[in-house]
Amino acid sequence: MFELFQNAFFASFLLSIAIGIIGSLMLINRSHFIAASIAHGSYGGIGIGVYFGFSLLLCTTLFALFLALVLAFITYKYKDRSDTLIGVIWAVGMSVGIIFIDLAPGYNVDLMGFLFGDILMISNEDLIFMLLVDILLIASIVLLYHRFLAISYDRDFAIIQGLRVKTIYTFLIILMALTVVMSIRSVGLILVIALFSIPPFVAEKFTTNLKQMMILSMFLAFGFCLGGLFLSYYLDLSTTPSIIVVAAVFFFASLFYKQKKGVL
Q: Is residue 264 one of the residues assigned to a domain?
């Protein structure tokens, strides 16, 4: 039992770092729908892994990266119709996963764990993968912070300045895909976007720049995860929904705060 909570604690910490960085970038780029498409579409990688007996983590990662490249291309080139294309990728990815799982003879994998997650079942292998993704995220934001900022707020100006906007944008979508994959075991494909959306949304109300938003988002996400863990333990509830409920309380509180501040 101690090892379960120990791994869940470390997973919460690693997850909060990713949420702070990628969640904030998702917010200012308004790319939650893209991340959601990757999250749900990567179910295809799970289905392929189940059918062929390959590593689910490897298959899901490769499939998510493939989806990221496709989505980066279509959302950059076909901006006017990107919402429709994103929805198609979302549906096709999940359909591929369901078909391969239906074809797999006698599978006994806990697929519900991939859909809704269970941070208490995080393995050491999952923690290592999460750590590697976090290292990549931290290195990327340190080296490319101003470039990410430029393409997020004024893409046309970034092009004029000679930045490789398409390459930077594609790399950002790839980082989103890796972050989604590292979060699947913890919060699942269904609820991952909620957890990546709420902390930056709340943090935005109390910060004045992207760096502050990222840092505050990390602390908020870590607090939400720990709060959900304790709530699920004492009330004997599912862990991931408990985390989301805790986060949702702060989400609506921030809306109330904004409305009250506007009145005052």
A: no
Could you tell me the residue range of the domain that residue 218 belongs to? 2-257
* pLDDT (tens digit per residue) in 41-73: 999 999 999 889 888 889 999 999 999 999 999
Q: Which residue in this structure is represented by tokens 């997850």? A: 15
Does residue 235 lie in a domain region? yes
Nearest to 51 by CA among 9, 100, 3, 97: 100
Region of 191 on the Ramachandran plot (φ > 0 left; ψ -120 to 50 alpha; else beta): alpha
Distance CA(164)–CA(166), nearest Å, equals 6
209 DSSP assignment: S
Identify residue 76 by its one-letter amino acid code: Y
With beta carbons less than 8 A apart as the criterion, state whether 127 and 77 touch.
no
Q: Quick one: pLDDT at residue 263?
A: 41
Which DSSP letter does residue 22 get?
I
The pairs formed by 246-250 with CB atoms below 8 angstroms and a separation of 24 or more are 247/194, 247/195, 247/198, 247/199, 248/194, 248/198, 250/198, 250/202, 250/220, 250/224
Query: Hey, what are 251's tokens?
Result: 């989400």
